[in-house]
């Protein structure tokens, strides 16, 4: 299938050092570490009788799951996975990625048919022997989490009852979400256990824990490694940093992550994932991941074509609210996330929308982490149809049914400048894995218009004007 488009071309001039070369895989820039490439070989195939037996049983269940998964999967994803321009495109099957049978079962059990582009590109690098380090970027909702979870689970020796994989998540909510993926993916691999190094999870210190995977936030993770000695850093084989851009935007997280990394053995595999790569993220990535393979997107590839972007011209806060009501009046919205700049606006909007009869939840930074997780869980279960929020706690949330993202206020950084990264994270809450999504921006001043234009220019993607008085026009954008 379209194998010619996978030709590698080598660009020596872009080589960053003697052992690296820059490759263009299709139009994607990939730097491969040549030294590592030469020594890379597929995982060891030696298996005991017992393992062979387990594999055969797993295989038969797997065939059943593949059949079910093929029946259940949506057409949209299948079409995109055959489109070479889509981030979901793949030339390989999961079988070709040489996953353990138990993990293949997990993958098919989750309803996945084929890997996405990031999965098929990153997994061979991550599963190679000796382990390869990786810095990887892919658009939101294209399967990064699934990719590194597979890598972690693949490297575990389940007979060893100690921690072998660490995954740092920037927030409590994301740690739980990633944990859920580990549980689902590892459903047919019950020997593997998971622990959460997050605030409130009080495990007594003194002796090391048995869980092979630990997911957590940097502070608690660091505590578990150093003060409580629950994990022996020298036994860690895989270290993952997820959502690195969000991670370094949070105070103290960068230093704590570096401190953790320094305790790990030299041959521990380091994997870093991010949806955006501003300079600060790069600097951090290069500091923390030695000799990496690199998968990066071009700027204009960062936003997904499946997410249509619009803006609405308004005169005031009330006007924005009226526009919102018109949108709700014209199209069926499965679930929506609405982003506000301040807690005050978010609270006002929650009250006003609730008064109009919408099922609304408010997620804001002042809530305790457990409360925030509970609100996200209710939203995920569809108990509320609208989630109104300020920035912080909503990054990286994966809720499949979100069909519309509304920027009630455009994202600004702390100096009041356009915040492109946050914009990308926000709109990425819709259009998850090939689903169509709408992103609607409310503009109510010359300044916010300038912010919109700057964002448009940054990503080199048109944001189209929408007239919310014209119901026919709104209806059209939903198709
Ligand atoms: N190969 C696949 N086939 C079908 N669905 C998939 C596949 N890989 C991942 N998904 C689903 O797509 C959604 C997005 O995946 P995931 O959360 O891994 O993306 P992500 O790139 O980590 O997103 P973000 O950048 O927002 O963190 C999830 O609901 C996941 O279950």
Automatic annotation (TrEMBL):
Q: SMART domains from the xrefs?
A: DEXDc (SM00487), HELICc (SM00490)
Q: Which PROSITE patterns match?
A: HELICASE_ATP_BIND_1, HELICASE_CTER, Q_MOTIF
What name does UniProt use for this protein?
A: RNA helicase
Which InterPro entries does the record match to this protein? DEAD/DEAH_box_helicase_dom (IPR011545), Helicase_ATP-bd (IPR014001), Helicase_C-like (IPR001650), P-loop_NTPase (IPR027417), RNA_helicase_DEAD_Q_motif (IPR014014)
- EC number(s): the record gives 3.6.4.13
- Tell me if Methyltransferase is a UniProt keyword of this record: no
Gene3D superfamilies named in the record = 6.10.250.2170, P-loop containing nucleotide triphosphate hydrolases
- What is the native source organism of this protein? Hemibagrus guttatus
Upper taxonomic lineage:
Eukaryota, Metazoa, Chordata, Craniata, Vertebrata
Where does the record place the Helicase C-terminal domain?
Answer: 306-474
What keywords is this UniProt entry annotated with?
ATP-binding, Cytoplasm, Helicase, Hydrolase, Nucleotide-binding, Nucleus, RNA-binding
Main localization is cytoplasm
Instruction: Please give the catalytic activity noted in the UniProt record.
Output: ATP + H2O = ADP + phosphate + H(+)
Where does the record place Basic and acidic residues bias?
34-46
- For this chain the motif Q motif maps to 92-120
Q: Name one GO cellular component term.
A: cytoplasm
Q: Does the keyword Repeat apply?
A: no
- Give the residue ranges for region: Disordered: 34-56
Per the record, the domain of life is Eukaryota
For the DEAD-box RNA helicase Q domain, which residue ranges apply?
92-120
Q: Where is the Helicase ATP-binding domain?
A: 125-295
Q: Which is an annotated GO molecular function term of this record?
A: ATP binding
Q: Where's it found, cell-wise?
A: Cytoplasm; Nucleus
